[in-house]
Amino acid sequence: xxxxxxxxxxxxxxxxxxxxxxxxxxxxxxxxxxxxxxxxxxxxxxxxxxxxxxxxxxxxxxxxxxxxxxxxxxxxxxxxxxxxxxxxxxxxxxxxxxxxxxxxxxxxxxxxxxxxxxxxxxxxxxxxxxxxxxxxxxxxxxxxxxxxxxxxxxxxxxxxxxxxxxxxxxxxxxxxxxxx
Length: 180
Ligand code: IMP
Ligand code: MG
Prior knowledge:
Layout lengths: L10 E6 L1 H18 L5 E7 L3 H8 L6 E9 L12 E2 L11 E9 L3 H12 L4 E10 L11 E6 L21 E4 L2
Parallel strand pairs: 2-3, 2-5, 5-6, 6-7
Antiparallel strand pairs: 1-8, 3-4
The protein binds inosinic acid and magnesium ion (MG).
The site of magnesium ion has 3 residues, from loops.
């Protein structure tokens, strides 16, 4: 295929293909629906990386659901974590008393999920349940786990299905590794 799918020629190998992701999301959505307390879910989607994952996952959850998005930045364009998490929104969603499903694309150092989950708890939410498409198998800077993990991957830099390198490749329909 040509570069219609977003610079496919820059990709060294496909790590998780579209069909495999779709099947896994079916199961994750079932798990979430089964395990979440009764009542509407408040999903909080971390932008931009989680938007593709969230769109596909949340449409599989057959119950009342509100969706909020949070703009946070932890990476600043490169492949190394900057170590700081910035909240970029002026107003954060009202989470008081809510069970939140917090979604991110990938659990790497854990700083992002930890910082956001802590903030939501400070803001009075009842509980934060975390979900990520990918979790890197590594020692994390923060002792944090996700309640729902799509796939465990090795400690390498990946793109596609929402994940970027310098703003690009988010529209690849699969998760892959770039050429060096
Ligand atoms: P953490 O705070 O180190 O866990 O990093 C989480 C954020 O870093 C994610 O939301 C991604 O935006 C970014 N990130 C971490 N690893 C990768 C990767 O392999 N590819 C693309 N983005 C990544
Ligand atoms: Mg990113």
